Amino acid sequence: MTPSERLDATFTALADPTRRAILARLMQGEASVMELAEPFAMSQPAISKHLKMLERAGLISRGRDAQRRPCRIEGEALAAATGWLEDYRKVWEGNFKRLDGLLAELQANQGKA
Amino acid sequence: MTPSERLDATFTALADPTRRAILARLMQGEASVMELAEPFAMSQPAISKHLKMLERAGLISRGRDAQRRPCRIEGEALAAATGWLEDYRKVWEGNFKRLDGLLAELQANQGKA
DNA sequence: GTCTTTCATAACCATATTGTTATAGACAAA
DNA sequence: TTTGTCTATAACAATATGGTTATGAAAGAC
């Protein structure tokens, strides 16, 4: 997978609220598919599909514990996507500085979401 | 548009290499639709569709200069996506100072972020 | 006015995404 | 072996995405 394809897969995986919620849950530690599915009004196969997309993006990996397939976060893909966005944000902040004093506005809005 | 829907739109917009290349070009400054389309082996309507998705995500805005519709980057959506990823990366890397607080916030936002 | 340039929209097609239900596989427990 | 639990896959449907060509609209140029 090329770096561009990896970014495709990562941003695609992050573009769904269910998958972002799954990542939020996994920030607390490993969880099985059933545990991950529990909060959602959605079938187990639907969750398995979401996990497959997260895995394809390298955002999670899966182990084996009897019948369970515990999922855990993998930081590398997260770091790659963050790094890409950070680079752009830095350039953009540089542009703001050159164009006007609007950097303050951007920074003020950073924490909002 | 809710914050979650905005993240959906932003990450969806970033998940395509053509749109990321358009953003890279716009980092250098404003450009018209024709100027943006020039490097791509793709029709002008295809570029217009990509610009529409970038605009819907709030990643760009468009002005008016005679027949031209110059596009420019809007930093806020970029900052929001960066901020979201940064929070997760910090938790993952263990660098976040108020780990409990952020985890609580991430959990509270599960359904909408 | 008429022409040209720039851009958007409509109609269409192929593929991908997102969910469903039904079923099969892996493994533990009885 | 039989049963039950956890997870993946197959088959299907609805909608979204990403491209095309044809056409329309807006604005300057002639």
UniProtKB/TrEMBL annotation, chains A, B:
MF-aspect GO terms: DNA binding; DNA-binding transcription factor activity
Keyword DNA-binding: yes
Keyword DNA-binding annotated: yes
SMART domains found in the cross-reference section: HTH_ARSR (SM00418)
Keyword terms of this UniProt record: DNA-binding
Domain HTH arsR-type span(s) in chain numbering: 1-93
Transmembrane segments: none
Protein known as: DNA-binding transcriptional ArsR family regulator
Organism: Aminobacter aganoensis
